[in-house]
């Protein structure tokens, strides 16, 4: 069966480098894998248990359902001050309270992009830590930390131009597909 992955983006700005990567993933996916974007994390209010107890905001429930229905999730995010952006943490905090919790036993791949040298590695390891509590199955390797981003993108045309980065992303998507098949073996029977 074909696999379907969804992407969650941790940056809100129009010219986001991470956004360029997220939007490029569908064309980099191996045969038989479709990738579509989730809604913007900005649609979620600030997490507040009082609000939750009056009923989850519609965008939270919609995203939770889209993640549950997907075979895997790809989180693409900048690093802010050596950690993950507050808007992304807020989204994970909301999603973590929905039952059934959508990230539990979900195949998840992480991607970070930065103009800096180490490509958001620190944020990625903070993100992994939160995903342990959510019982997500986070892909170990290959790790996608796209550093020195200014030499790899055309920021006027909003394109990821670096060919080896594009090929590396394709490899990670294929690895996520392998992980998804290990988690749900029935999916691979009729491939
Ligand atoms: C940054 N940036 C940054 N980069 C990095 O590698 N490590 C870091 O800790 C931080 N910290 C940080 C904090 C804040 C508040 C901002 C706004 C930026 C730089 C960041 O990587 C750069 O702005 C990226 O272009 C942001 O990603 P998008 O929006 O282009 O996807």
Automatic annotation (TrEMBL):
Residues 6-149 form the NADPH-dependent FMN reductase-like domain. GO terms for cellular component: cytosol. InterPro entries: Flavoprotein-like_sf, FMN_Rdtase-like_dom, NAD(P)H-dep_reductase. Pfam families: FMN_red. It comes from the Bacteria. GO terms for molecular function: FMN binding; oxidoreductase activity. This is NAD(P)H-dependent oxidoreductase. It comes from Acetobacter cerevisiae.
């Amino acid at each position: 069966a074909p696999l379907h992955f969804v992407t969650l983006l941790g940056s809100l700005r129009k010219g986001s480098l991470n956004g360029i990567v997220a939007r490029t993933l569908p064309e980099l996916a191996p045969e038989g894998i479709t990738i579509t974007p989730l809604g913007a994390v900005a649609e979620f209010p600030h997490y507040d248990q009082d609000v939750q107890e009056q009923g989850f905001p519609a965008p939270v429930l919609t995203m939770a359902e889209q993640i549950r229905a997907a075979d895997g999730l790809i989180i693409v995010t900048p690093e802010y001050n050596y950690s993950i952006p507050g808007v992304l943490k807020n989204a994970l905090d909301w999603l973590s309270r929905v039952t059934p919790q959508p990230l539990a036993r979900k195949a998840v791949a992480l991607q970070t992009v930065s103009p800096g040298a180490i490509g958001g590695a620190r944020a990625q390891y903070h993100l992994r830590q939160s995903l342990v509590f959510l019982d997500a199955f986070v892909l170990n390797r290959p790790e996608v930390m796209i550093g020195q981003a200014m030499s790899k993108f055309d920021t006027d045309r909003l394109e990821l131009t670096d060919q080896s980065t594009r090929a590396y992303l394709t490899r990670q998507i294929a690895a996520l597909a392998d992980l998804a098949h290990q988690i749900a073996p029935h999916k691979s029977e009729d491939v």
